[in-house]
Design goal:
alpha+beta, 10 helices, 12 strands, about 45% helix, elongated
Length: about 425
């Protein structure tokens, strides 16, 4: 029930975001004097509507987004009443049209930034000094966090009664103990702990030297068995290895909570990192298409493959089911930021395509004036329709791939 609630809540959050996106277009258009005739949440048959002034507001039957109708978005719009010609969008200065067309993405960015600021002062943002790479993790002191059990297979899931108990717990080790040696081999960092354990076999007895509250001590335990890939090849073939049943307690906190003022700078820094990560993720999209197809045809789903709204909603459901509300809101932030960036790509029918054409017209008019030639006028959108259809087709196929993968072989962050 909690999972279903999370799915519904996240889908609703996306719907609200997209509706606010369209509201951004509408409000800025109205502010500049453009005529907006319709603003609807959803698509398909109208469930309910009312008219206020010159705009009809309402709700459609298919809750998959929303739209607003601005009169004369292009010079080729053939449904513009002659009386509305002076207020047609294409007649307004390019800077005004740019603001109107970018207002949707700006709304997504605003939602993401506001949510991040709230997270920064409540739950905290990721610590930029926290070890994130494998090399940084292995250099950390071998301060341990006990696991309740040893999961025999190479997976992340909750312990069950069938799983063997953690050997470290059986040896009376505690969270925060720092291991200094195993079977006489000195342990200076977490990487050496892993290497030393891999040199042993499941069932071997390990003599463990450790420090607790500044006092050295020793204990012993029989190592359990789990499955892991080689340390130098995380994607290599898994094999049985010895397990102590411990994790790492990093020397730095994973998150930092800020005050209202300090959260502004931290939010800006995190947003900058998110922009870089979004750019890198978008560059990888073409090469991830084969991985999506492989996931659909039965291979293991690559966690780095793109997800659809369906997949994001499923992850939101998992987050709520596991009481991971911070993850829920971070998913909301990431999705809004990605939609904001994606929508600004200079391709029709995206908002970025309309913005690119508006500035192309402005630059071309400026250039023609400088060389003494007549202004060529507006771009003929009808001539761009074949390219627009290609973009729509590619986008549709990609969306279908991601939705199918998210249904038949979804990415999961928790064991269910």
């Amino acid at each position: 029930m909690a999972y279903l609630l999370g799915v519904v809540l996240f889908a609703l959050a996306i719907l609200v975001s997209v509706s606010l996106h369209e509201a951004g277009h509408m409000l800025t258009a109205k502010a500049f004097g453009m005529k907006v005739t319709r603003y609807f949440v959803g698509f398909g048959p109208t469930l309910w509507s009312f008219k206020r002034g010159e705009t009809e507001y309402g709700v459609k039957g298919i809750p998959l987004g929303g739209f607003c109708k601005i009169v004369g978005m292009t010079p080729q719009d053939d449904d513009v009443d002659p009386a509305d010609e002076p207020r047609a969008m294409w007649r307004f200065p390019v800077w005004k049209r740019t603001i109107v067309m970018s207002a949707g993405s700006i709304t997504h960015f605003a939602l993401a930034v506001i949510a991040l600021w709230i997270i920064a002062i409540s739950a905290g943002l990721p610590n930029p000094q926290f070890p994130s790479t494998e090399a940084e993790i292995r250099k950390e002191p071998a301060v341990i966090a006990l696991s309740k059990c040893v999961v025999p297979e190479n997976t992340l899931r909750e312990c069950t009664t069938a799983d063997p108990a953690s050997p470290a717990a059986q040896a009376q080790l505690r969270d925060g103990d720092r291991i200094t040696a195993i079977n006489g081999t000195p342990i200076d960092d977490y990487g050496q702990l892993l290497t030393t354990l891999r040199a042993l076999k499941p069932g071997d007895t390990a003599q463990i030297a450790y420090v607790r509250d500044g006092q050295p001590a020793t204990t012993s335990t029989v190592l359990a068995q789990t499955q892991r890939p080689p340390l130098d090849d995380p994607k290599g073939q898994v094999a049985p290895v010895a397990a102590l049943g411990v994790g790492l307690v990093p020397s730095t906190p994973t998150r930092i909570t800020y005050g209202p003022v300090g959260a502004v700078g931290a939010t800006a820094d995190f947003t900058g990192d998110m922009a870089v990560n979004t750019y890198e993720a978008m560059k990888r999209i073409p090469q991830k298409v084969p991985a999506l197809w492989a996931a659909i045809t039965g291979e293991e789903r690559d966690i780095d493959t793109p997800i659809s709204v369906v997949g994001a909603s499923r992850l939101g459901g998992e987050a709520v089911e596991n009481d991971a509300w911070l993850l829920f809101f971070m998913l909301f932030v990431s999705l809004n930021f990605f939609i904001g960036v994606f929508n600004l790509l200079p391709l029709l029918p995206l908002d970025g395509g309309h913005i690119a054409i508006a500035w192309f017209e402005r630059a071309r008019s400026w250039l023609y004036a400088r060389i003494g030639r007549a202004d060529p006028g507006r771009v003929d959108y009808l001539k761009l329709m074949p390219l627009t259809y290609v973009v729509i087709l590619i986008g549709g196929v990609f969306t279908l791939l991601t939705i199918t993968a998210d249904v038949v072989n979804p990415i999961t962050l928790f064991s269910r």
